[in-house]
Amino acid sequence: MLYNSTQNAAEVVSAAQAIAQGISKDGGLFVPQEFPHYDEAAFKALLKEDYKGRAKKVFSDFLSDFTREEIDDCVEKAYTAEKFGGENPAPIAYTALNGKSLNILELWHGPTCAFKDMALQILPHLLTKSLKKTNDGKDAVILVATSGDTGKAALEGFKDVEHTKILVFYPVNGVSPMQKHQMNTQEGSNVRVCAIKGNFDDAQTGVKKIFTTPAVAEKLAENNMLFSSANSINWGRLLPQIVYYISAYCDLVNDGKIAFGEEINVVVPTGNFGNILASYYASLMGLPIKKFICASNSNNVLTDFINTGVYDKNRHFFTTISPSMDILVSSNLERLLYKLSGNSDATTKEWMTALKTEGKYEVSDDVKAFMQEKFFGGFCDDGATQSTIRALFKESHYLADTHTAVAVNVYEQYVAKTGDVTPAIIASTASPYKFSHSVLEAVAPSEALPENEFDMVDMLHELTDMPVPAPLAGLKDKAARFSDVTAADEMQDYVLKALSIE
Ligand SMILES: *Cc1c(COP(=O)(O)O)cnc(C)c1O
To answer: How many helices (H) and strands (E) does the chain have?
Structure first.
């Protein structure tokens, strides 16, 4: 299977090249030229497999330049019961709200308690094998700018992975105390964490600049290293996300919740559009998904886009209690637009150029019509997010984090508006303990809250009796290893020094 750029169909690469390179030279994203199609027999065979078996099947159909042994090795190392707290890394919780059943796909049982582990636990293995195939054994240097969850998940994924080094930059005042402590206590001999005096955009701009400075690349090459990226537009981050939708469908059938072949809806709390796009890709492979319900917080650029066909990022940026969805440019939407425009690289390029220059574009009537047939866009604000957490806990004793609660709220809106009660999978993207403060405010609105993040975790545990995930519980007594802070315009020097090649 080959891949091409969304902005230049003539740019054709192998899977290993797509993963090693991350983004195409023309600025486009790599997409598979076709999707494997699973018939009834193929799905029936997957019903009998466990998560790892399902993952191996999907990976082998997309990564045709990997051997079966290589794929098995990646999957076995990534999805261990030890790292994901059980044999199924993505279990479904069956609960209810307003008397209607909810199927919540919990994607946060990995080492950092957010769904990014599902991809970032396997990406380092895919990447090192890809680099071996494409770049005669250079060491990969991964630079990450993070607003919280990605940085920790990438550190945990790349820790002690041979032939890699990882450096994470975060805005000094732009991450939660828990996220900061998670990163600064990171173990591993190949990791480094540094705060930036500035906001997330400054960190992101700094990383991009280092990536594209030829003198830096030359210096790395002289020392047998090269830059690589772990961000969410890398095909190696998207592919692992297709697996859990297919696996969840199999689990619903095996658990007697739906009949084999029955249609489902999916509901996804969306930021960069990677997670929901993966469910769309699963449907292109034959998974019977009727509606893709795209849930946003007050940064509702995608809701407006689905409803009007106009994408316009020129708007107020809200800082919300679901910070991983505080995004105005959803990078992975480009891949959907490419597909919906009939694989037109010219059209995709036109829209993405308009986005860059004017912050805005409008899609054709055809694309708009298709979007509205398959997608539903909705949003809710912080108050509604917390009411949803409270209602779900009160009725069913199920504790949702703020991102998951946005999805549940928008799903309720969808059902009220359409009457469509097709069984749905709701993606749950973080442990409630990762956002203890906002979750506590929701379930105990009248109580005084402690200052310290870990005291909040304890209080939430006492109030709800929900188990605290071991990786978060264990953080309390861990000493910080990293405390560096640097100016945004000194990031390049910092990187060269950290690599001992200044
Ligand atoms: C990253 C993230 C999201 C958004 O996912 P996208 O794939 O970027 O749409 C939602 N919730 C949490 C907790 C996240 O970390």
So the answer is: 23, 16
> CA 435 to CA 90: how far, in whole Å?
20
CA of 217 to the centre of ligand 1 (A): 31
Atom 11 (ligand 1): residue with closest C-alpha? 429
Query: Is the Cβ–Cβ distance between 287 and 36 less than 8 Å?
Result: no
DSSP secondary structure, 394-425, as one string: HHH-----HHHHHHHHHHHHHHHHH-----EE
Measure the CA–CA gap between 134 and 9, rounded to whole angstroms. Answer: 21
- The tens digit of pLDDT for each residue in 170-179 reads 999 888 888 8
Against a cut of 0.85, is the pTM above it?
yes
Task: Identify whether the C-beta of residue 112 lies closer than 8 Å to the C-beta of residue 83.
Answer: no
244-274 burial string, b = 16+ CB within 10 Å, else e? bbbbbbbbbbeeebbeeeeebbbbbbbbbbb
Contact residues of ligand 1, CB 6 A cut-off: 114-116, 149, 232, 269-275, 324-325, 403, 429-430
pLDDT tens digits, 240-296: 999 999 999 999 999 999 999 999 999 999 999 999 999 999 999 999 999 999 999
Q: Is 68 exposed, middle or buried (0-12, 13-18, 19+ CB in 10 A)?
A: exposed
> Which of helix, strand or coil describes residue 310?
strand
Amino acid at 422: T
**Atom nearest to 148 CA in ligand 1:** 15
Phi, psi (5° rounding) for residue 310?
-110, 125
- For residues 223, 227, 127 and 202, what is the CA-based torsion angle, rounded to 10 degrees? 150
Residues in Cβ contact with 475 at an 8 Å cutoff, skipping those fewer than 6 apart: 178, 181, 182, 185, 454
Asked if 372 contacts 306 with a C-beta cutoff of 8 angstroms, the reply is yes
Contact status, residue 55 vs residue 79, Cβ threshold 8 Å? yes
CA distance 185 to 145: 17
Cα-to-centroid distance, 114 and ligand 1 (Å)? 8
